[in-house]
Design goal:
By secondary structure, the protein is an alpha/beta fold. It has one domain: 3-Layer(aba) Sandwich (Rossmann fold). The protein is built from six helices and seven strands. The two termini are 22 Å apart.
Length: 187
């Protein structure tokens, strides 16, 4: 059993990321894994307010120490993220920027949504950030074009292809987490 953090990368009113992330959570838990569900709207990290570079881990604020401890406790992450103007969510970027060492050697998978590309351009724009902080992006992605049409009554109605893609992502994420455990231990 892996400890998987699912991060809801949008904080916008009316966002569809929350029901999509709930669908992701149900599939990850259904596969027998422990989940830490992080809604960045509820986490409410202010715009990066730490006076020292995160590589020093000299955190001055309780919200940063709490965020650090949650990330440190995970084996792998899934970012459920929108695409904004061919790029990534500023709330997700801010949450990543708060930390450095905690991300090292952790595998991350993406479930993205937004327009015709299904959020893939936002994920691509985020890749240099991931490599800079040491996150390891797994090859499998779930891109959801036109996902707003599948959200209703507070839930996301995935089709069979999307569900099998997500299940493949979770299996690959867990495998990468096991393989990267020695790298994480060296932090």
């Amino acid at each position: 059993m892996a400890h998987v953090m699912i991060v809801v990368g949008s904080v916008r009113p009316g966002r569809i990321g929350l029901p999509i992330a709930e669908w992701v959570r149900s599939r990850v838990e259904g596969a027998g894994h422990d989940v830490d569900f992080v809604d960045l709207k509820e986490l409410a990290l202010p715009f990066l307010d730490e006076p020292h570079h995160p590589i020093k881990r000299d955190y001055q604020h309780a919200h940063t120490r709490a965020w650090s401890a949650r990330v440190e406790a995970t084996d792998a992450l899934i970012f459920v993220t929108p695409e904004y103007n061919h790029s990534y969510s500023p709330a997700l970027k801010n949450a990543i920027d708060y930390l450095y060492t905690e991300w090292q050697g952790r595998p991350v998978g993406f479930v993205s949504y937004g327009g015709m590309s299904g959020g893939s351009r936002g994920v691509t724009a985020l890749e240099p950030v991931l490599s800079t902080v040491g996150l390891v992006k797994i090859p499998t992605e779930v891109n959801l074009p036109g996902a707003s049409k599948q959200v209703g009554d507070g839930g996301f109605a995935a089709d069979d292809r999307q569900t099998s893609s997500l299940d493949a992502l979770v299996a690959q994420l867990v495998a990468y987490g096991e393989a990267l455990r020695p790298v994480q231990a060296r932090r």
